[in-house]
């Protein structure tokens, strides 16, 4: 949101507490996607699920065949991509509120296909159909978050979206660990039942939410935008909703002069190309730095040689550590910028992931536990840096007219990486039996991400959307973003520039 009035972080949270509340509430939809993802990936290691859906092996054990594991995970991610492709234009046309409510009702209705599935084909169909709206949730949550609060607290509400993702993982891992005691069909049926807990109550709550003032202003509904703005902040002597809407209009005027456009193709033209690159690579890095290992931690632990109960306990512990890292990131964001946190996180995570792979050459139990400890430390750095900060960067870097579509492109590439990981992980961890050595590709991706971040990632902390439009319009180098002082002459240069 524009920042014509300078408030401290503490003051902003107090004055804009209603905007923070609605942002936090809408972000809960992301928990469902996270819960579903960790649930499916972890159930592969649960004996009752293996017996119900798997194939009997010569050794008397059941296992979900690698092609079906790949198909289930890929199908889920393909559904999310479809949801993104459909969702971004729908959000641009109908707004966040109506799209989110419709998507939540859709999810609730089709979750029944998952619960009543009796075989892998039915399970796959259920996940594909039910997950389509979740792709829209993944782009709506961060986009809505940065549009309903001022820039002083923009990073906190955007990174909370990632924290909801972690919370979904923690809940899923905790439910699975507890349900193992049943050692029956309820080991997986009970987690399936809990899928119904969020959609309908959240849809009812969002009925009372205000629409994004940016969406309303973009549609020319200025009075409604001012009314929505009033619902986002408490009365304050220096804040006038009409003035804030006027400032939004000024930012739109600058983007019109920059010929920003509003289509997917426009994301790759002129200065938008650079902004799209930053959004895409930033939001894809969280999938690359833990490639194969991160989202299959429980299955990874079992294939590395740990007992099933210990593997589930460590999986839960990892996500709790990532949650603690997410809380830590809020304090780090107050002191450091996005670029600093990303580069520092990658710097410390790369040797940790290398050690996870290297320790696989030690065949003792001590080596297995050392691997687990390294991965747990890695999850803390991930949770405090690489997990939450890309959500902030991807949501704030696009032009306002292209926010939904840029986020859609970024998230689609993220899911494409997850699809490749989901296809390869059963082969890495099962067919080829690489065990801990599966961490080496993630180590390589971490190094590449560190190099890109140092060279290409600008610092956007403290910049409002108008300032970002000007900085990108002037083609300011990444390492000069934080120190560059914008003048009135710069605004004139941008106004008369031709992309």
TrEMBL record:
List the Pfam families hit by this protein, alphabetically.
Answer: Sugar_tr (PF00083)
* UniProt xrefs under SUPFAM superfamilies: MFS general substrate transporter
Q: Which family does it belong to?
A: Belongs to the major facilitator superfamily. Sugar transporter (TC 2.A.1.1) family.
Q: What would be one Gene Ontology cellular-component term for the protein?
A: membrane
Q: Which organism is it from?
A: Leucosporidium creatinivorum
Q: Which domain of life does the protein's organism represent?
A: Eukaryota
Q: Where in the cell is it found?
A: Membrane
| Molecular function, one GO term | carbohydrate:proton symporter activity
Q: Please report the name of this protein according to its UniProt entry.
A: General substrate transporter
Q: InterPro entries from the entry?
A: MFS_dom, MFS_sugar_transport-like, MFS_Sugar_Transporters, MFS_trans_sf
Q: Which UniProt keywords apply?
A: Membrane, Transmembrane, Transmembrane helix
Main localization of the protein described in the UniProt heading: membrane
The residues covered by the Major facilitator superfamily (MFS) profile domain are: 22-461
Task: Tell whether Metal-binding is among the UniProt keywords.
Answer: no
Q: Which PANTHER family match?
A: ALPHA-GLUCOSIDES PERMEASE MPH2-RELATED, PLASTIDIC GLUCOSE TRANSPORTER 4
Topology class, membrane: Multi-pass membrane protein
Membrane-crossing residue ranges in chain numbering:
20-40, 74-92, 99-118, 124-145, 157-176, 188-209, 278-299, 311-332, 341-363, 369-393, 413-432, 438-455
